[in-house]
Write a structure and sequence with these properties.
Blueprint lengths: L17 H20 L3 E2 L5 E3 H5 L4 H4 L4 E3 L5 E4 L4 H9 L9 E10 L11 E10 L4 H17 L5 E7 H10 L4 H12 L3 H10 L4 H10 L3 E2 L2 H11 L4 H19 L5 E5 L12 E7 L2 E10 L3 H4 L7 E7 H10 L11 E6 L5 H13 L3 E4 L6 H10 L4 E5 L1 H4 L3 E6 L4 E6 L3 H12 L2
Parallel strand pairs: 1-5, 7-9, 13-14, 13-15
Antiparallel strand pairs: 2-4, 3-4, 5-6, 6-12, 7-10, 8-9, 10-11, 11-12, 15-16, 16-17
Helix pairs in contact: 1-5, 1-13, 5-11, 6-11, 7-8, 8-9, 10-11
The chain binds histidyl-adenosine monophosphate.
């Protein structure tokens, strides 16, 4: 039988080596803390879901990139491309009688068959927050502020929010009786900034000249003087009742954010659309300078839960791309401040001290000190070299001679000094030295 070799990861899939893995877990922990701070309860939903659920309102773009397969029972299933559909399923079914609002948090991997490039992978990680049951602008503002907190807590600077409102455009298209299929196609084109194609499609579907010229003007409105721009939007859409309502809603949300004194840098973009089809209200994405891919995005979707058979439930949510947050952290060189455990290599000298050695290792671990046992039977010199290379803090050398006195040798690998210490004092010794290190 011939051997197998040369295996590689599937295109678009990555291994996370220890450093990457620990950064991902750090960012994930931060996301969990922010969820806690804002009162979001964590839930865990399956990676594999019914294809029909995930595709219902995902939009053509996401739908065309889903990993789809039949399971062995012949069910059409897919790997989740996002969390929102799963959370909406829960709120439409199992959680339907829970008191509102519901604040739910998930974190985990998601899958899209995107073209692999910087910050774009086929397996990626999201932290996802959904706030369900309130149509108040306070809910929208909360999701934006929570997002701002999360990015701040990861040490990111120069974060900018791009904001739009799908209700402005939808108000016009619905009033003009544009078929939903065409509406969605128009949004997909706008999401890709193909405004001319979007306008062309509208003209072809028989929309009035006046209407297309309003939309043409609308998509040009963008900038940082947000209240000014809302005013311009209101003037442009003055004949479309639903659109005026949407602009008012946008104004209220923007007021709440600026009144909250959490400094969020906002750009308003009236021609902004997002690929997902379920949005009905405000939509947004976050960016940092020098990285032109979104760190996350979200928006209001007031009809998804009833589409899934639940009670009509207004909702707003956001997903943060953890891989991209990690990229931005590296770019901005924001080192996470984690409290690292002290690390110790425990080396046995000779054959007859094995029991005592593993007992000592256990005492240390129970005190929260990270221990690696030397198990390659290396000579002391070699073992210390390895411990040094691994940047460990201490080596403990367990030899017969010291053991007979109830002691071991502790070597401080940073200061390069060693001494004989009573077994009962090892933990104290290591933590004491740590205390001295503190400013
Ligand atoms: P989304 O904009 O499709 O929204 O994805 C959110 C974030 O996930 C993106 O901004 C990006 O950071 C990250 N992301 C998406 N695709 C990839 C990829 N191929 N590689 C790396 N990162 C990626 C949603 O998923 C909605 N569920 C957000 C939401 C929640 N809306 C309401 N509630």
């Amino acid at each position: 039988m011939s051997g197998m070799s040369g295996f590689r990861t599937v295109r678009g899939m990555r291994d996370f080596l220890p450093e990457e893995a620990s950064l991902l877990r750090f960012v994930e922990d931060r996301a969990r803390k922010v969820a806690d701070l804002y009162g979001y309860k964590e839930i865990i939903t399956p990676i594999v879901e019914p294809y029909d659920l995930l595709s219902a309102k995902a939009g053509e773009e996401v739908k065309s990139r889903m990993f789809i397969f039949k399971d062995l029972g012949g069910r059409d299933v897919a790997l989740r491309p996002e969390f929102t559909a799963s959370v909406a399923r829960l709120v439409a079914t199992t959680l339907k009688n829970e008191p509102k609002p519901l604040r739910l948090f998930c974190v985990g991997s998601a899958y899209r068959y995107d073209e692999p490039q910087k910050g774009r992978y086929r397996e990626f990680w999201q932290s996802n927050y959904e706030l369900m049951g309130s149509n108040r602008p306070e809910a929208d503002a909360e999701i934006l502020m929570l997002t701002n907190t999360l990015l701040q807590q990861n040490g990111l600077r120069r974060v900018a929010f791009k904001i739009g409102h799908i209700g402005v455009l939808k108000g016009i298209l619905e009033h003009e009786k544009v078929e939903e299929r065409i509406q969605n196609a128009v949004m997909q084109l706008m999401d890709k900034k193909q405004y001319d194609d979007a306008i062309g499609l509208l003209k072809n579907s028989g929309v009035s000249e006046n209407c297309t010229s309003i939309i043409q003007e609308l998509v040009k409105l963008r900038g940082a003087n947000v209240l000014e721009i809302v005013k311009k939007i209101e003037r442009l859409v003055k004949n479309y009742e639903k659109s005026i309502e949407a602009a008012k809603n946008l104004r209220e949300i923007l007021r709440l954010i600026s009144g909250s004194e959490c400094r969020i840098d906002v750009t308003l973009d009236a021609g902004f659309a997002r690929g997902l089809e379920y949005y009905t209200g405000i939509i947004f994405e976050m960016y940092v300078t020098d990285l032109d891919i979104a760190l996350g995005g979200g928006g209001r979707y007031d009809r998804l839960i009833e589409l899934f058979g639940g009670e009509p439930t207004p909702a707003i949510g956001v997903a943060h791309g953890l891989d991209r947050i990690m990229l931005a952290m590296k770019m901005q060189q924001t080192r996470p401040q984690t409290q690292r455990r002290k690390t110790v290599m425990v080396v046995a000298v000779g054959d007859d001290v094995a029991d005592e050695t593993s007992r000592i290792a256990q005492i240390l671990r129970e005190s929260g000190i990270s221990v690696e046992l030397e198990i390659m039977r290396r000579k002391i010199g070699k073992a210390l070299e390895v411990a040094d290379k691994k940047k460990m803090d201490y080596a403990i050398i367990v030899g017969k001679k010291e053991l007979d006195e109830g002691a071991v040798v502790i070597r401080d690998l940073v200061r390069r000094e060693q001494s004989v210490v009573n077994i009962g004092k090892i933990v104290e010794r290591i933590t004491l030295v740590e205390g001295r290190d503190l400013p």
